[in-house]
Design a protein that fits this description.
- The complex is a heterodimer of chains A (244) and B (113).
- Chain A has 244 residues and is an alpha/beta fold.
- In chain A, 38% of the residues lie in helices and 19% in strands.
- In chain A, helix 1 packs parallel to helix 4 and helix 2 runs parallel beside helix 3 (87-95).
- In chain B, strand 1 (26-34), helix 2 and strand 2 form a beta-alpha-beta unit.
- Chain B has a domain at 2-69 and 102-112: 2-Layer Sandwich (hypothetical protein PF0899 fold).
- With 113 residues, chain B is of the alpha+beta class.
- Helices cover 27% and strands 33% of the residues of chain B.
- The chains are: A alpha/beta (244), B alpha+beta (113).
- The interface between A and B is large, with 43 and 39 residues.
- Bound molecules: guanosine-5'-triphosphate (GTP), magnesium ion and zinc ion.
- Guanosine-5'-triphosphate is lined by residues 54, 56-62, 82, 88, 136, 180-181, 183-184, 212-214 of chain A.
- Guanosine-5'-triphosphate (GTP) binds at residues 54, 56-62, 82, 88, 136, 180-181, 183-184, 212-214 of chain A.
Chain lengths: 244, 113
């Protein structure tokens, strides 16, 4: 035991003057490690996973329920993240897909550990589609990899066209932006071109689709994007199996 | 406020390192936080203070070293400074920029005993 302070450590350090040491460790290392585990687990099974992020109320759950209804011959699983309630998971189940609700309490984002646990209880089938609805928040979820294939950011036209530059980290992290609630455009002075231009400033490679989850505009292009992604994902997992 | 989770991550690292590097008290910590890492430094400092209470890093001084944002302009084929993700290239004004630096969050250095 340490004779200096009785801390229970061996005496090696006792009486030692303060020492400096360089460690250079990534603060997110643990989350990133768990995210890689999730990614490997999903890849083995050819499951195409998306992390849907947006501010509160931009239409994530509506988009998911419509997607589930329209992809009726595809196996879709959902992980729902909200601070409180399981309202959204209920809406998903009513639309016909198995769902697990994660309540983060005060937490403002999902992390890879929560998603890993949800995967265990949801146990999605091989070659299925996994949609993860993150907590409504345009800031925090950007930093936390969950193991998804892509982040998809949803921005509704009632939020204003400058969101991509006000919350650039999220738009930089996403591969696809869905501009939702386009059915409301006639009633607003939202500038679609300016919005897309802002998004491309922070992320020159971001893809953009304009949709109305409520009225159905643009849903075909979104479903097509999903199916192509699922096919790519399945092919990759079959290739890996054959090379084993 | 993901700064609270980041602060918890920092404390976890300090506790893990205490085992392998054999220390029992953390006096000072130097954190490297990129300008483009999406971190509110005041919120992080506050969270660290709260999270470290009654831990091996209680009362430790946290120094936050900012690393500038950098990018590669595809038009100019050169590295440029990038104060934010929505800045254009200071030379050609375009936005075809690949971020190359300033997104890291690391625990760089410690003073321990
Ligand atoms: N007009 C219109 N309303 C929409 C559209 N999509 C969603 N809404 C409405 O927007 C409101 C919020 O939708 P949700 O799907 O609950 O949004 P969310 O992003 O899941 O919300 P949180 O989970 O609370 O962050 C609801 O009243 C929806 O009916 C759309 O395309 N057009
Ligand atoms: Mg929702
Ligand atoms: Zn340039």
């Amino acid at each position: 035991m340490c004779t200096d302070c009785g801390c229970g450590h061996d005496p090696l350090h006792a009486g030692g003057a303060p020492r400096r040491m360089r460690i250079e460790l990534d603060i997110l290392a643990k989350n990133n490690r768990l995210a890689s585990d999730n990614r490997a687990w999903l890849a083995e099974r050819g499951i195409f996973a998306l992390n849907l992020v947006s501010s509160p109320g931009s239409g994530k759950t509506t988009l998911l329920t419509e997607t589930i209804r329209q992809l009726d011959d595809t196996l879709v699983y959902v992980i729902e993240g909200d601070q409180q309630t399981d309202n959204d998971a209920q809406r998903i189940r009513e639309a016909g897909a198995p769902a697990v609700q994660i309540n983060t309490g005060k937490g403002c984002h999902l992390d890879a550990h929560m998603v890993g646990q949800a995967l265990q209880s949801l146990n999605p089938s091989p070659s299925s589609l996994l949609l993860i609805e993150n907590v409504g928040n345009l800031v925090c979820p950007a930093s936390f990899d969950l193991g998804e294939a892509h982040k998809v950011v949803i921005l509704s036209v009632t939020e204003g066209e400058d969101k991509p530059i006000k919350y650039p980290d999220m738009f930089a992290a996403a591969d696809l932006m869905l501009l939702n609630k386009v059915d409301l455009l006639p009633y607003l002075d939202f500038d679609v071109d300016a919005c897309i231009d802002y998004a491309r400033r922070v992320n020159p490679n971001i893809q953009v689709l304009q949709v109305s989850a409520r009225k159905g505009d643009g849903m075909d292009a979104w479903l097509d994007w999903l199916i192509k992604g699922m096919n790519r994902c399945q092919l990759a997992s079959e290739r890996d199996e054959n090379s084993d | 406020m993901h700064e609270m989770s980041l602060a918890e991550g920092v404390l976890q690292l300090l506790e893990e390192q205490a085992e392998t590097q054999r220390y029992h008290k953390v006096k000072q910590v130097w954190l490297n936080i990129g300008e483009l890492a999406g971190v509110d430094v005041d919120a992080l400092t506050f969270s660290l203070e709260v999270v470290c209470r009654d831990s091996l890093a209680d009362g430790a001084v946290f120094h936050i070293v900012r690393e500038p944002g950098r990018g590669w302009c595809l038009q100019c084929s050169r590295e440029v400074e990038l104060p934010t993700r929505y800045h254009g290239c200071p030379h050609c004004g375009r936005y075809q920029i690949q971020v190359t630096g300033g997104t890291d969050m690391r625990v760089g250095e410690l003073e321990v005993e």
